[in-house]
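Support request, please re-run this one:
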Amino acid sequence: MVGRKPKPTKLRLLEGDRGHATKQELAHRDLEPQPDPRMPEAPAWLSPNARKKWAQLAPELLELGTLTHIDAEVLGGYCDACARLVYITHRYGMVPLNRVVSAQRKQALADLLKFGAELGIGASSRTRIEVRHADQDVDALADILASAERRSHRRGSGG
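Re-run finished. Output below.
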């Protein structure tokens, strides 16, 4: 299938869900897996610098609701890419003259963007995210949408 990957419902709701969801998309929200939102353990393969980035980001992402216990490797990939980019930049500068180092820097940046997009990290993602307070129940919205979808199906099949 060609095209953009679908965003997880949690990210769409945090961003304000500006798009017009089709009936199929609304029905899919009820079936979307909802992993337990608990803090994952940092992968053992993370470097010390990547672990620092993990310690900085994981609590914030968990609070936003975009991190669950099964996202450890995705966040680990992001932290690893960040640590590689910092290492390369400190060691060789912003514009490395060596082609190999330049390719490594470019790959670290690409990885950073790729993993960041999975978790809603990045300047464009931050501008679209609405932080909801504890008294604003995101699940209530999903229940309302599911209820509307069921009513719509009943009207369509009972006709």
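The mean pLDDT is 77. The longest helix spans residues 72-92.
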